[in-house]
Design brief:
This is Antitoxin. It comes from Sandaracinobacteroides saxicola. Belongs to the phD/YefM antitoxin family. InterPro entries: Antitoxin_Phd/YefM, phD-YefM_TA_antitoxins, YefM-like_sf. The protein is an alpha+beta fold and 80 residues long. It is built from 4 helices and 3 strands; from the N terminus they run E-H-H-E-E-H-H. The chain has one domain. The protein is 48% helix and 19% strand. The chain has a 3-stranded mixed β-sheet. The longest helix is centred in the C-terminal third of the chain and has 13 residues, at 67-79. The termini are far apart.
Length: 80
């Protein structure tokens, strides 16, 4: 575990974030005392069930022929 002063951490935040993303834990000190810890984030997600997604999209009603025109008109009106 590495320790770094707050002023140095401010100046090198991007580099510290890269180090933390690589698995390193960094302690940030203020006046020599630990005040924060920069650690890698834990990613928790479940794999996507493609069959369930396919069943869901197949169950959706088909779009009406004019829907795309409405969406385009809304998009174009928002541009200007």
């Amino acid at each position: 575990m590495n320790a770094i002063n707050l002023a140095e951490a401010k100046a090198a935040l991007s580099a510290l974030v890269k180090r933390a993303a690589a698995g390193e834990t960094i302690t940030i000190l203020k006046r020599g005392k630990p005040v924060a810890t920069l650690a890698p984030a834990t990613r928790t997600y479940e794999p996507l069930d493609l069959e369930e997604l396919r069943r869901f999209t197949d169950s959706l009603p088909p779009h009406k022929p004019g829907d795309i025109d409405v969406v385009r008109a809304m998009r174009d009106d928002a541009r200007y």
